[in-house]
Design a protein that fits this description.
The complex is a heterodimer of chains A (273) and B (319).
Chain A (H helix, E strand, L loop, with lengths): L7 H24 L4 H5 L13 H8 L3 H32 L5 H11 L4 H14 L6 H5 L6 H12 L4 H8 L4 H12 L1 H17 L2 H6 L8 H10 L6 H35 L1
Chain B lengths: L1 H21 L6 H34 L20 H8 L1 H32 L7 H9 L6 H11 L6 H8 L14 H25 L4 H9 L4 H28 L4 H6 L11 H10 L3 H26 L5
Helix pairs in contact in B: 2-13, 3-13, 4-8, 4-10, 4-12, 8-10, 9-10, 10-13, 12-13
The chains are: A mainly alpha (273), B mainly alpha (319).
Chain lengths: 273, 319
Amino acid sequence: MIGTRSRWWLYVLLTVALVLVITPFAWMVLGSFKTNAELRQIPPTWWPQNPTLDNFTQLFSRLSFGTYFSNSTIVAVVVTAGNLLFCSMVGYALGMLRFRGRRLIFALILGTLMIPGVVTFVPLFVLVANLGLVDTLPGLFLPFLVAPFGVFLMRQFVLGLPRDLVEAARIDGAGEFRIFFQVILPLLTPALATLGILTFLGSWNNFLWPLVVAQSNDTYTLPVALALYSTGQNEQQYGLLMAGATIVVLPVLVVFLIFQRRFIQGIATTGIK
Amino acid sequence: MSAVTGTRRSAPQSTRAARKAGSSRPPGARREERAGWLLTLPFLLLFGVFTAWPVIQSVFFSVTDITNRDLRTPFQVNFVAFEQYAKAFGDPVFRQAALNTAYFVLVGVPLTMTIALAAAIALNTGITRFRAVYRLGFYTPVITSIVAVAVVWRFLLHPDSGLVNTVLAWVGIDGPNWLGSTTWAMPSLIAMATWRNFGTAMIIFLAGLQAVPQQLHEAAAIDGANAWQRFRNVTVPVLRPTILFVSVTTAIGYLQFFEEPFVMTQGGPLNSTISASMYTYQQFSFGNYGYAAALSYLIFLVIAIVTALQFRFLSEKED
């Protein structure tokens, strides 16, 4: 195709693109160490002139970013655990076991795969309000414990497992639940990893539902707190906002960099199915 | 070519059929039936309460005059038939929001896909050094919170102390007040969304490109086809299912764009960036639940139609 000699311009092009893509993150992290005055300077500075941790200490001492951080973490962990457990159970049942109604259930799941959150949030809010869960953490995570996408992903994976595995375990006298938890679940590890990372990220970055349900400092998640803070009277607190954005982005960035290989493979496989 | 994709896609079905035909009904059929239902039950319960029921109820809400005063008695409300829907079509702000959303989708989706495909092809031309680094870098914005990056972009686009206008000034261009201008605010949001989202499409395109047979490219090159002709006649046909998938998922996401205007412009200036989702949320927060439900159903309807249209025009053509 393209000869080796003409490739240098490809590297130039890709490198320029890479710099453009990464610059906002560098700007964000560097900005979080600048003072408000420096952030208003014209022209702007690149490296912080007087690096300070003031923004971060203020976020955690004066504002409740510690609470928001733990809320985001609790919700994301519970949602991820719920999806891993329930979706793999259903994915296994639908992909391996024969029981009446399984086709209907799968059709139902496929049918709701594409239903966007914007369609259900109004009645969901009324429901959660009547359950007394508005402005509580369960109100934030209960509606997301299962997702059609997770079932779809796990079922696809289970379809690739040999049925003899289950039958051999039955002959050995293992109960159905033991077969699932001790034989099947360990084999699902790659799919569980993909689903786990996707679900965690989705929950961590989720915005519309927490914006609707969380109504006080005790229940705000990080994106909600940051969005409300950035559009309210603190719009001009540039240093705090840059540090806040860094706190939202950096943890997932680190997790992503550790697991990136598996993660990118996961995205690719969900795409071409 | 179609044979290649054809066999690949039918593989799971044929193994399933073989499994079905090969093994006779095992002795523990009743046990299996019971296990199947028990394993599915928790999911069905949660799914029924928090997804299926709200979907049904939102139809009901959208034909009533329910507001936040009816929160405790959501069934004692007046039936108003399609009044809420009629109201939506006559509402100038919603019409503006619908137009803005169309603008965002019609420019944003092709732009995102073009950049993603260009990046995927560039990374697939056999470059070996730093390939993983580029791929990782391009993908990174995808994992980040839109709210957080929107906050950062607001500063990047700041008319005076922003990085964008500073760099433009180096080459003698006096950059506009991006987010404060009715002309430039929407292109700014589209630029940010493209930056944030093209990585996903790129990864999927990269996976799709693995299915393009190298020999076909070589044969076409020997026959004298130039790079564009090879792209058009060799790559695109094989990639068609991938293009369909990417365009459907990107469009579904973009039709609901919400965080970008919420954080960067609050829908302004002069409603020039308010989106359909954002307006729906606003009506909800004003307490107009019935109206918000109707608006959300309209968005859903448009998503369904757009998806159907894409399947109609982008799926593999029978030769």
